[in-house]
Amino acid sequence: MLLFGKKVEIYESRNHNEFKALKKLLKKNGISYGTGWVQTEVACGCGAKINMRKVINPNYSPYLWSVYVRPENEDAAKRLVEELKKD
Fold first, then answer.
1. pLDDT band at residue 62, thresholds of 50, 70 and 90?
2. I need a surface site. Which of 19, 23, 45, 76 has the fewest CB within 10 A?
3. For the chain, how long is the longest CA-to-CA vector?
4. Region label for 67, one of left (φ > 0), alpha (ψ between -120 and 50) or beta (otherwise)
5. What is the mean pLDDT of residues 65-85?
6. What separation in angstroms does the CA of 17 have from each of 22, 51, 65, 82?
7. E strand residue ranges, the chain
8. Are 16 and 61 in contact (CB under 8 A)?
9. Burial class for 67, CB neighbours closer than 10 Å (0-12, 13-18, 19+)
10. 80 in Cβ contact with 25 (< 8 Å)
């Protein structure tokens, strides 16, 4: 958990499953990290229970997930991100 000090963003994506896998990988390798998310779009405001964007693209996510690490861990963490994206 990174509350104070300098942070470097190493990952940003809309893919929540990849985000969770990266967190597990960082934890397994002993790298401390911080996370964040931003809702980039507001869902349908009409009160409908079905979000048509989700019907058209099942992988759609209105959230943007980010992972931050300390500068001294940046190289190792970026290697892990590349390794995760290769698989």
1. confident
2. 45
3. 47
4. beta
5. 92
6. 9, 20, 10, 16
7. 8-13, 33-39, 63-69
8. yes
9. buried
10. yes
Among 3, 16, 23, smallest CA distance to 67 is for 23
Closest CA to 66 of 3, 1, 6, 15: 15
C-alpha closest to that of 81 among 1, 10, 7: 10
Q: Which amino acid is at 53?
A: R
User: Is the predicted pLDDT of residue 78 greater than 90, yes or no?
Assistant: yes
Residue owning tokens 């290697």: 79
Element (H, E) at 27: helix 16-28
Distance of alpha carbon 46 from alpha carbon 84, whole angstroms:
38
The angle that helices 16-28 and 74-86 make with each other, rounded to 10 degrees, is 130
Tell me how crowded residue 65 is: count the other CB atoms within 10 A of its CB.
20
Reading the block at residue 56, the tokens are 């058209």
